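Notes from the 1:1 (GR / supervisor)

We went over the backlog. Supervisor wanted to see one worked example end to end before approving the batch request, so GR pasted a single chain during the call. The sequence is below; no edits were made to it. Supervisor asked that the structure be written out right there so they could see what the output format looks like.
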Amino acid sequence: MSNNIIQAYAAMSPGASLTSYQFDAGELQAQQVEVKVEYCGLCHSDLSVIQNDWGVSSYPVVAGHEIIGTVIALGSEAKGLKLGQRVGIGWTAESCQHCDPCLDGRQVQCS
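Structure output shown during the call:
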């Protein structure tokens, strides 16, 4: 398993510039996949989170959810992926992609 320390950029307060930040992601859980991020986009939703436009942000904020990278670790119950596989991650990162809601395009309803 890889290093659990994540190198990122974070906003420390609403509207703040992004600064170098690291945090411990903890142990990889059974259904999780660790991805070495190669590219990460920021969209308008990310900017709204950084600026706390919706009043729900918790700082520090590490924004970005449009990710391209390579699978470097798999949890013991992760399905459908393999080490070294190139993947893209969108807003539905916490979905299994195997249950009926996921297969029907309703990933937000994944248990």
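Supervisor's comment: The mean pLDDT is 89.
Batch request approved.
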